[in-house]
Amino acid sequence: MAIMFYTITTLVNVLFKRESFNWIYVHLIGQIVPIAYFSSVSLTAFATFIPMQGRGNAGANPELLIALFAVLVGLLVAGFLTPAHTSPERFYVYHCTREFYHQNGTLRRLEGGFYVHPQDRYTGDLIRELAIKSRANALPLGDECEKELYCGIPFYQNSHHGQRDNGLWIKGNTFTLPETIDLQYIGNQNDSNLNTTTFSFTVKGTDHMSFYVSP
Question: Could you tell me which residue ranges the Endoplasmic reticulum metallopeptidase 1-like C-terminal domain spans (predicted)?
């Protein structure tokens, strides 16, 4: 019974997402029935077994039996009275400067901001609430993934692109890297026998870089 009411109150808190400490009241209200039930059972048991233990022999230890029963009832009553410990929200935050160029090499867009990569189910809601408190908007990548290569985000890990639907973008200020990235196109070489084309580039920049190509 305690498990059933504990599960019900937990589901209510998850569905309605109680803010602050209001969720604890929902949890405690759900424990009224289990506490009343186990209290009734314990009173009935004590009223039955205590007189019966008085009829035992001199070698019996009635106090030990009653104490064990009291501990058992206490665990059943208080075991679900204390809610489960909340787990921390996990997410990555990357401060980004995004530079978009035309094919001729001229800059067409420059913007800065923060890319947030959630790791847990409700992290997105938490980030949106924190952004609103800071007078900012945490927006999904949305159309950026249709218009720009890799959503226009410098993903630190390639696997993050697979969770792009959960990612959030918060506009912010730009910054300058200590060492600029210099990417130069050297040329290409065609191989008619293998029907392949090899492109050559030179790149100079930071100690962590990723290079993505789209046909």
Answer: 86-215
